[in-house]
Amino acid sequence: MSTSRLARLTAIIHRYVLNPFSVIRRHRWLVVGGVALIFAALTLMIGFNSPARQLRNAQNLWASEGARRYRITVRFERPYSDCEQEFDVENEVAGFKHRDSCTVGTGVIGKPREETMPTVSNLFQRVADGLAAPLCGQNGCVCDGPVEMTAQYDPERGYPTTIEYRLRPDWRWSDPAFWLAQLNGTLAQCPMTAYVGQTIRVVGFEALPAAEAEAPVKEPLVAGDKKPESESGIEELAKPEATAEGD
């Protein structure tokens, strides 16, 4: 290699490899613009796939492709404790009950109320509430950690098919109160928790035909029956009686 080529190669290495800040200073506006574009692209990707956006898309799909009458079966799954509800629903009001083992248990506390009935609107509301106000374990976020909620939706109709709640004690490190509790010793006083999460799963969904109002049955007219009035509701005028000749 000639001396001139070696000198040029050494200058390039020193300029771009050993001293990259000189390139950044020279093309700083290009660098700033590139970083801004990357940040904007990441923000759009995160917003497009955010749980809130998925919920809105599912609700819009249900509004256009959902069923007014349907039969739904929802299973509440917890460790060592499952229960199931199957109802016919019309206009988001639960009607005929096929089976319900959740009247007493961990799936639904106490007797079923309107907000706990297995309707699509109530399932949507569960997801919305979990996004608006994230839950914590029974003993609080510092002791137990937050509860992670994930939801999946039917690709054809949009109703929630799975809502999963999972306790995440490994997420406590992001809470400053957790580190403070470690320093002052209060973390050791946290009681044990029995809650680890639950899964609400739609195991059956069937769209039902719309209920039709029964039309009155018209009986056939038999001999001797009085002729009904005309459809217009106007009775025929009586014809004058013929008089006897010679009157």
How would you describe what is shown here?
There is one protein chain. With 247 residues, the protein is α+β, with helices and mostly antiparallel strands. The protein folds into two domains: 3-48; 68-207, no CATH class. The chain has six helices and six strands; from the N terminus they run H-H-H-H-E-E-E-H-E-E-H-E. A six-stranded antiparallel beta sheet has the order 3-2-1-6-5-4. The longest helix is centred in the first third of the chain and has 21 residues, at 28-48. The chain is flat and about 90 Å long.
Q: Measured on Cα atoms, how large is the radius of gyration?
A: 36 Å
How far is the N terminus from the C terminus? 150 Å
The main sheet comes to: 6 strands, antiparallel
Number of self-contained structural domains = 2
Contiguous low-pLDDT stretches (5 residues minimum) are: 104-113, 213-217, 227-247
How much of the sequence lies in strands comes to 15-25%
Q: Report helical residue fraction.
A: 25-40%
Strand order of the biggest β-sheet: 3-2-1-6-5-4
SSE pattern:
HHHHEEEHEEHE
- Number-wise, the strands total 6
Number of helices: 6
* Class derived from helix and strand content: alpha+beta
Query: Which descriptor suits the 3D outline?
Result: flat
Give the rounded overall mean pLDDT: 76
